[in-house]
Amino acid sequence: MERITMAKSLKIGIFIGKGASYSWIWFVKTFDALDFNDIFFLDENDVLHGQLDHFDCFILPGGDPFQVAEGLGEQGLSLVRSFVERGGTYIGVCAGTYLALRFCEDPMPWLNLVDVPIRNYARTPPEAVRMQYKYLVPYRDGFVFHPVRGSLEVTTGDEVFKAPLYGGPPMVAPPEMRLLDYSGFDAKTLYLIDEHEAQRTMLGHAAGIRVPVGGGNLYLFGPHFEHPHYPRANQFLHEILCTISPLADGPPALPVTLLQGPELRRWVTSLRRDVSSSRVLANGLTDLRWKIGEKVWEDEKILYFVNELLKLLKDLTRYDVLPVCDPASLRREAQNMRMHLAEIRVLSKDGMETTRQASALIDSTKKLSKGLYESYFMFKRQHWWSNGENNRTHS
Amino acid sequence: MDNMYTEYYLVVDLATGTAEEIELEEEFVQEYVGGAKLNMALYEEHKDGEPIVLGTGLFTGTLVPGSCLGVITAKSPVTGKVAHAPFSWGAGAELKLTGYSFVVIKNAAEAPTYLWLHDEIADFVDASALWGKNVWDAVDIIRDEQGEDRIQVLSIGKAGENKVTTAQIVNNYWGDGDRFGFGALFGAKNLKAVAMRGMGELEIDDADAFIEKTEALLGVVKKQIAGKSGFSALDFANIPAALKAAAEKQMHRVEADFNNPLPYKFFLKYREDPTTMASTKVEEPGVLVSDPIGYAALGAAVAPEDAAEVLEACFKLGLNPVAVAGKLTAKDKAGAIAELEKMAESSKADAFDAVLSPFAPASERAEAAYIAGICPVLAAAAEALNAEALAELASIGTGLDFDADAFKL
Amino acid sequence: MAIQIEPLKCINCGACELGCSFYRDEVFTTMSASIMMYREEKRNYFGLMLKKEEEMVLGRPEGVEVQKDGESSGEEEANASAKPILMREPCDECKNAMCVRFCPTGCLTEVD
Q1: The domain B8-203+354-407 is classified under which CATH number: 3.30.230.10, 3.60.15.10, 3.60.9.10, 3.90.180.10?
Q2: Are A325 and A339 in contact (CB under 8 A)?
Q3: Three-state helix/strand/coil letters over A323-346
Q4: How far is A274 from chain C, CA to nearest CA, in Å?
Q5: Which of B192, B182, B161 is nearest to B74 (CA)?
Q6: What CA–CA distances, in Å, run from A215 to A86, A116, A176, B219, B296?
Q7: How many residue pairs bridge chain B and chain C with CB atoms within 8 Å of each other?
Q8: Could you tell me the strand order of the sheet in which A121-122 lies?
Q9: Which residues of A touch B119 (CB under 8 A)?
Q10: Where are the CATH 3.60.9.10 domain residues in chain B?
């Protein structure tokens, strides 16, 4: 119990910068459910400004490792290496795992902290049986390929449970590193290559490893143990966190505005209005798939985020007080999100390019999400509230 | 209310531009159930504000067959009494899924306004640019402004703006069950429209049992309405043979309200070949005959082949076709439409006496349908949708205790 | 079991959306179904969109069309590690599908 209590004070930084996919929100939901409240969000600028010094754990979630590396640059990557060597814990999932591994002779200049080959890298990968466009990623002289997607089974040796895989690697790791192996597939596993080939490629190889580097550790996972629909996998993550000693002091406190009572309600209502309107607009974009034909615009990502933000804002309507960094800025981001969506709708209907607006939309969505979740966790931490009382509910 | 309904209902004061959320309590639902009956309770409570109550039934928005119904309750300027008009298509379910199963609209706005309901948010939107616009244009503008074509709109045209008692509230582009001149009440309140986008969720108490019973009920209902579609579902509308023959030449497709297995509505095309299935550049190829009795009334006033286009004009102006058909003197299309334009400025509906709209056929099951949120046209055609069956489903879905008497006004 | 669409039997009632959403979330909503109504209301042009893992089946009144997924309208290529962060899950071809059971016209049927 003491271990769990201690773990709850771990200072955890989640990377949400360039290249991080929206799966970071799964970490948010899982940590919230597990009552971890010292959760912070970092982008490449934060890393470059030395912010990692203030954290026990740095999480690099799923996404595009090429973009992550590009955003961090050599200096940022070097700072991440130093963080681990000085005693920090790096948790990599999917892209975060690829970023940390050296899996071929001439690797990309990424973290390259762990020498562990992977089973899904080849010069001539097996033929895809489906999802050609999601199956291969060129890497140096070869390709990283994805044998399966979706739910599958992993084992600790004592126990088997499920976790979802969306591109993470099966690792060829020595026994002392291995935490979990891929042990089987299930009815929901989608085979991108021949089933037997997939089995040979994956089963019996490492799905999760722990590697000590310098004073710290890397925990590298293929599947998304943070996915909120997989409670046992979340629990496994929890168990790992409980082994880490909280030593960091957390990032410097930012100036906050304490919104209260009617002012808070007005602010929340105004955000809800724009987020809900964005939701209507985003949902309306689905119809464009009918019209655009072969060109399919991935509107779903925005919808997911907008839905999650709306749920959070609905929760916040019950609060009497909330610390917020720059409420006016968040208000602007919500308005921007709606504006960009409205623009995309108009342009898309006319068959015009929307890349610039989509990029701006994603940026606004990320800033708004970061700001709201920061407030949410700030409230949960209650560090700003001198007498420690919880004034969440309306009187 | 945890199940079948939303947590809140809304009380809107157009004069102050405020909207208050009030918890929809179980006890209230246990006593009044929903639809016309619960609307009436809310009407009485808020009488001081000359309210228009938009409400939904217990089953509106669920998988129970015909669960499309919303009900408008207000004091009719035609009958002089409180009455209930149905609205269906997609709007009934959409209203409930906005997060507000009932909306009480009180007093009058100072300037033209439309109410925009979405995700438990009620926005008062300036409608001065919409005032004077015909219904179809207004709906297009609202959908464009708010960003989605699935937004459902209850609105008025010139007739309602001019507060004539032949006005009706129109459901998107199509007339609906308002025979009571409620469109004039919207006009008196400076309320151009109520726009809704329902992206919420409804929970059910015993979901497995509810789905099992609902599916079984659907099976029986399908047998009872077997073969009924379009005209064959419309004996009650008394559509004469000549009008049917004209309509058959213009017939495009039959269709149905939200979750309604009875496709009694049909679309007639007269600006393009009705057999054209693809989407073409013709923006307004025809009209949905959403009001078969209204269509029949117009068919008696003008040439059968022109009745559909005259119906379209009624919908655009926000006129109740039944109220105006008998007043038309011109037999030609252009003349009739010109007369309708004048009636939208000034006309008076003949008084009649009814509490439930004569839009749908009278039946033993009509009251239950108006309370349950079931299409009254379907209820008339399907004996299985009786108060006893609905009471059983209501109890399973809510976890409360209802008997057949609960479904009587 | 895969879903077959016969678009001209559709009466655009949306029972399929409601049924599929219920299958997924055990609530009544239209927001989480793999099958969606499409309608150009004034033109009375309507059909169904069925989202599948790799494609979108468009039940157009003029004929069924299958759109292959993966090509994006922007410069960003569909990512190999793209997560299905979807509001709408692809049809999982469940048995005794709710959409089929509640479709009143037989527009939707299950096929091998």
Answers
A1: 3.60.9.10
A2: no
A3: EECCHHHHHHHHHHHHHHHHHHHH
A4: 19
A5: B182
A6: 5, 19, 17, 68, 86
A7: 102
A8: A121-122, A142-145, A136-139
A9: 272, 276, 279, 310
A10: 8-203+354-407
Please classify residue A2 by burial: count the beta carbons closer than 10 Å to its beta carbon, then call 0-12 exposed, 13-18 middle and 19+ buried: exposed
* Total number of domains constituting chain C: 1
Taking the C-alpha atoms of residue C5 and residue B197, their distance in angstroms, rounded to an integer, is 27
Amino acid identity of A190?
Answer: L
A316, A376 contact by CB (below 8 A): yes
- φ/ψ of B84, rounded to 5, equals -125, 125
CA of residue B93 relative to chain centroid, distance: 11
> Which residue from A minimizes the CA distance to B145?
A342
Compare CB distances from C80 to A137, A224, A303 and report the shortest one's residue: A137
C88 touches chain B (CB under 8 A): no
Query: Long-range contact list for B391-394, CB < 8 A, 24+ apart?
Result: B392/B213, B393/B59, B393/B64, B393/B210, B393/B213, B393/B214, B393/B217, B394/B4, B394/B33, B394/B58, B394/B59
A→B contacts (Cβ < 8 Å), by residue, are 269, 272-273, 276-277, 279-281, 283-284, 287, 310, 314, 341-342, 345
Closest alpha carbon within chain A to B149? A284
pLDDT digits (tens, 9 = 90+) for C6-47: 999 999 999 999 999 999 889 999 988 999 999 999 999 999
Residue of chain A whose alpha carbon sits nearest to that of C56: A289
User: How many Å apart are CA B277 and CA A139, to the nearest integer?
Assistant: 49
Contact A42, A15 (CB under 8 A): yes
Taking contacts as CB-CB distances below 8 angstroms, the residues of chain A near B118 are 276-277, 279-280
Amino acid of residue A253: A
What backbone phi and psi angles, to 5 degrees, belong to B102?
-140, 140
Q: What is the 3-state secondary structure (H, E, C) of A35-95?
A: CCCCEEEECHHHHHCCHHHHCCEEEECCECHHHHHHHHHHHHHHHHHHHHHCCCEEEEECH
The pair of three-digit structure tokens given for residue B249, joined into one six-digit string: 């030449």
What are the pLDDT digits (tens) for B108-155? 999 999 999 999 999 999 999 999 999 999 999 999 999 999 999 999
HSE at residue B106, side-chain half, CA atoms within 13 A, is 18
Q: What is the pTM of this model?
A: 0.89
Closest CA to A324 of A286, A389, A267: A267
The vertex-B108 CA angle with B106 and B109, nearest 5°, equals 120
Query: CA-CA distance, B34 to A263, in Å (whole number)?
Result: 35
Range of the domain at C97: 2-111
Mean pLDDT of A239-255: 93
pLDDT in tens, A128-184: 987 776 788 899 999 999 999 889 999 999 999 999 999 999 999 999 999 999 999
